[in-house]
Amino acid sequence: MTNPQISAETIEALRRIDSATVANAIEHFEVRDPVSGYASLELRCQFPEAEPMVGFAVTATQDTTSAGDDRPNRLHDVLDMVAAAPKPVVLAVQYTGGDRMRSCLAGDMFCSALQKLGGVGIVTDLGSRDFQGIALRAPGFQLFCAGAVVSHGYGAYTNTGTTISIYGLTIQPGDLLHGDANGVVSIPLSIADEVVEQALRVLEVERSYFDFLASDEYSYAGLKKRMGREE
C-alpha cells in the first residue's frame, strides 16, 4: 500500500535524485521558508554509498537510558504502525530520555525486521549499533542517527504517531522524507510530483554550469552572471 497522494512512479523517480538537488527543487515552489524542512549536520548518514532513501514517516519517541525502567516497551505498537502504514516506510524516532548521548535505538535485528515490514530506513537523534550487520543482513536499508552506541539499554517508546523534531527537522506522521549522504529533507506532499520535474531542471542547469566552466567560453563576467542575482 502506497500513499494515495503519491504514485509508486514518483517514489521511484525521487530515488534516482540526490537529496541536495531535491532540496534545491523544493525552494522553487516557495511553499516554506528556505531555512526549514531539513535536518542539521548532527544527523549522520551511516551508509553514504547507498541510493537515496524515500519513504513515508512513521513517528515515535523513545527513552533508552532511564535506570530501573519497567514501563512496557511498546515495541509491538511501533511494529503494528509500520506494518499498517503506506509504503515505503521511514521510522522517525525522537529521544525523550535524560542521557541522549548514551541512547541506542536500532541494531541489525531491528532493521532487518523493519525492512521485512516495508521499511527503507530510520531517521533518529538516538544512537544505533551493528552497522556492519545491518549492511550485511538488511542491504539497502538506510540509517540516519547520532552515532554508534554499543548497548541498547532499556528501550521504551514513550509516544507514537505524534509530531516530532529531529535535529531541526519537524516530522509529522505520513511526511515524505528523502535522505542520502547529503542529509535528510522533507518533501511537501502537495508538490511531490512537481519536485521530480523541477529537480530534473535543476540538474540540467547545473550540467550547463559545469560545461561552461570547462569550456573555452568561460569568463569571470559570465561566471558572476551564472552565480546568482545581484542585490
From TrEMBL:
Keyword Phosphoprotein: no
Pfam families hit by this protein: RraA-like (PF03737)
Keyword list, A-Z: Magnesium, Metal-binding
GO MF: metal ion binding
Domain of life: Bacteria
CDD domains, per the entry: RraA_family
Binding site residues for Mg(2+): 130
Binding site for substrate: 129
Transmembrane segments: none
Stretch forming the signal peptide: none
InterPro entries for the chain: RraA/RraA-like, RraA/RraA-like_sf
Needed co-factor(s): Mg(2+)
Entry protein name: RraA family protein
